[in-house]
Amino acid sequence: MESLPLLIVIGVVLSISTFLFFENMAIKAKKQSIEEGEVVVKDCDLGESFIRYDTSKNVAYFFASSYVISLGVAIAGYSPEYGLVEALLYIFVTTFIGSSIIFVLKFKRSLLITVFATFLYGVPLIGASVLAFLTKYLFS
Taking a C-beta distance cutoff of 8 angstroms, is the pair 19, 55 a contact? Predict the structure, then answer.
């Protein structure tokens, strides 16, 4: 149980770094669409924004990356005394800390962007972590 806080810190650092990498890719996609002469409309719908910023692709890549990170943490941090409680503790503490960091980083932006970015971090991370720990326990 003494290594669980270290695993949580590793999970937070790696998942935040991965999220910021894919967010940077979304910003580059936006800049590229502006350079290509696309008109940026303030009142565009959510579907157009997803297409313009490659959101679906970046969220899928973040999900896959989070799965690999969580699977690595689950395998590297394996201890026979760890069970479901420790897996859930890792998943939810990592997600809570990471979401809080994303919220603080985006705080000066509009509330919608802040909440949306936090949501796009938390949901894929929870899903990927659950699948990673499930994979780990099914194959051990």
Answer: no
